Amino acid sequence: KAGVTQTPRYLIKTRGQQVTLSCSPISGHRSVSWYQQTPGQGLQFLFEYFSETQRNKGNFPGRFSGRQFSNSRSEMNVSTLELGDSALYLCASSLGTGPLNTEAFFGQGTRLTVV
Amino acid sequence: GESVGLHLPTLSVQEGDNSIINCAYSNSASDYFIWYKQESGKGPQFIIDIRSNMDKRQGQRVTVLLNKTVKHLSLQIAATQPGDSAVYFCAESPGGYQKVTFGIGTKLQVIP
């Protein structure tokens, strides 16, 4: 069974540009969550999608957005990039169904560098 | 300017000894707790989880203890091996959704 796949693995962008990151969850998983990991702030929750709907959102500005497609693949977009957006962006997938949380599996992340 | 990183607590243990990694959580509404292991250059890897209706759960070489009274979680690793060297994160989540709050992590160094 293939794991969570994130593309691209590495990305370099210039301040002011926008970027789109992609995540393909484990087959059968309907929940996809996104996290930002930086040395200064640790791992921070961005948002979670389930069945193409944003179900939960962290405390990030509106420049950070996402979406989920009918096949559960998800993309996140960051517009007007700032130097502080340089981070490892991690995607995690889980079954997401039922009232209880279920084990989430992480991808290897996309390392974004803003210059 | 120079970025200031989080100062990760570090635990150094001798190979073969038991390791105990501690974590304090903040949200009394959290009812699901997870331990993750992150090796350099990789995403976090699930180790073990526990729900709030339990106070202990065992896996292979790992045990998680939950003390809801003092909002404390611990991960015990038996017979620590060099491959256990990594950063360990505890995470908490309220019921229903996947919004997970991570702790800052503890770096485990295993001395051969």
What structural keywords apply?
heterodimer, A: mainly beta, 4-stranded antiparallel β-sheet, B: 112 residues, mainly beta, 6-stranded mixed β-sheet
Q: Tell me the distance between the termini of chain B.
A: 38 Å
* Rg estimate of chain B, integer Å: 14 Å
Distance between the termini of chain A: 37 Å
Poorly predicted runs of 5 or more residues of chain B: none
The gyration radius over C-alpha positions of chain A equals: 13 Å
| Mean of pLDDT of chain B | 89
Structural class computed from helices and strand pairing of chain A: mainly beta
Helix proportion range of chain B: under 10%
Order of helices and strands of chain B: EEEEEEEEEE
Number of strands of chain A: 11
Find the count of extended strands of chain B (DSSP E, 2+ residues): 10
Put simply, the count of helices of chain B is 0
Q: What low-confidence regions of chain A span 5 or more consecutive residues with pLDDT below 50?
A: none
Overall average pLDDT of chain A: 92
What does this molecule look like?
The complex is a heterodimer of chains A (115) and B (112). Chain A has strands at residues 5-7, 10-13, 19-24, 31-38, 42-50, 53-57, 64-68, 74-78, 87-94, 105-106, 110-114. In chain A, strands 2, 4, 5, 6, 9, 10 and 11 form a seven-stranded mixed sheet that branches. Chain A has a four-stranded antiparallel sheet with strand order 1-3-8-7, with no helix packed on it. Chain A is built from no helices and eleven strands. Helix content of chain A is 0%, strand content 52%. By secondary structure, chain A is mainly β. In chain B, 0% of the residues lie in helices and 53% in strands. In chain B, strands 1, 3, 4, 8, 9 and 10 form a six-stranded mixed sheet that branches. At the A-B interface, strand 4, strand 5, strand 9 and strand 10 of A face strand 3, strand 4 and strand 9 of B.
